[in-house]
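Agenda item 2: uridine-5'-diphosphate-glucuronic acid complex prediction
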Amino acid sequence: MRIAMIGTGYVGLVSGACFSDFGHHVVCVDKDPSKIEGLNAGRMPIYEPGLETLVATNVRAGRLFFTLDVTEAVRDADAVFIAVGTPSRRGDGHADLSFVYAAVEEVARATTNDITLVTKSTVPVGTGDEVERIVRSVAPDRAIRVASNPEFLREGAAIEDFKRPDRVVCGTNDPEAATCLRAIYRPLSLNKSAPVLFTDRRTAELTKYAANAFLATKITFINEIADLCEAVGADVQEVSYGIGLDNRIGRKFLHAGPGYGGSCFPKDTLALLQTAERHETPLRIVETVVSVNAIRKRAMGRKVIRFMGGEVRGKTVAILGLTFKPNTDDMRDSPAIDIIQALQDAGAHVRACDPEGVEQARRMFSDVEFVSGPMAAVKDADAAVIVTEWDEYRGLDLREIGAVMRSPVLVDFRNIYAADQARVAGLRYLGVGKPH
Ligand code: UGA
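Presented output:
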């Protein structure tokens, strides 16, 4: 199949590279000349494990191309995927669809084929209808079939998620669009590695939001249980394991922590609430999840301060990990932002490290001291706080850490160390949802 991918952000680039790895001919388009120039020179605009090699292999094989020119990209395409950003509109949480609609219009003007036009960006229920309206008015003589195909990739595991997904959801009532999508995803259904579901378009659009809202709920649920564990002297990791072994609950997404962040859960839960409000069908659980998570992220900084004795003015706090999760350079809505702000507001000096996130963090904080790694961060510090569970923070020599700190205090918001292990190494330790 010949595919055009509009947008080489996270979703577009990973999906485009993976489609080409399936053997399809893929042209990825972006408006940003520096991005396209970089990609053509083999430089990735984002950090994602395995992406650089995947792109290089498929470029070399003559299946993957990058261009600034939409017309060139869609010229011979069978399917055009829209994978541009849908940021939260400032103030009201609505998904900003202006990039999607502009891309749709441009594609409709450029195409000379009867294509399947697929929305991969996360878009509110009913967006497909508006896309269809634009297409009909811009290109009335073309048979452009509009479908929805939401993505379920996780940053840091995106290639694996794309190639071995739990499912693929395709939303369309048009038989030709369904045939086109079936052909595109054939490599997945060939070895029955993933069910490819076909639904109507609105159902597909809503499935994406419902999935993210449910996952955000699961995390928030275990985070509140973690607070209760601390109050009653129980251990949330064991509670989580104990409930997760029940297949109806499942073990995944039950890791208590400092609250969820990233480019998806915060934005998508807000957008889902807007849809619900518009349809006068309140989603009380999701509303609560959103506010509990926001409050939690702000509370984490105060928790550190309390554990340090309530006064941090003039003290140095080492932050280990800045990104919202490991294996990404993404700082969007990361709990580290709230934690650093709370510490700075209370007068602490913040020193921080992260294997990939420093560049983005520098743009947010001019008054944080960024250092190369954990040992440099903890030297003469009054507390060390693990915010992101990067693999390289899992095997630190705690004795060595304690020895170079001014006061040996470790706050572990990801529970990657055992309390006993830290105590034996001479550290005062605070985990999440652990008995004190
Ligand atoms: C999420 C979904 O997991 C993907 O399926 C979806 O495709 C994507 O959003 C999207 O809509 O594009 P992502 O935001 O990359 O993916 O990251 P997750 O691995 O889901 O983590 C999100 C946040 O939840 C992180 O801050 C992470 O630390 C937190 N989390 C996750 C927990 O605190 N506990 C857990 O058990 C799991």
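Discussion summary: The chain has 18 helices and 14 strands.
Owner for follow-up: CH.
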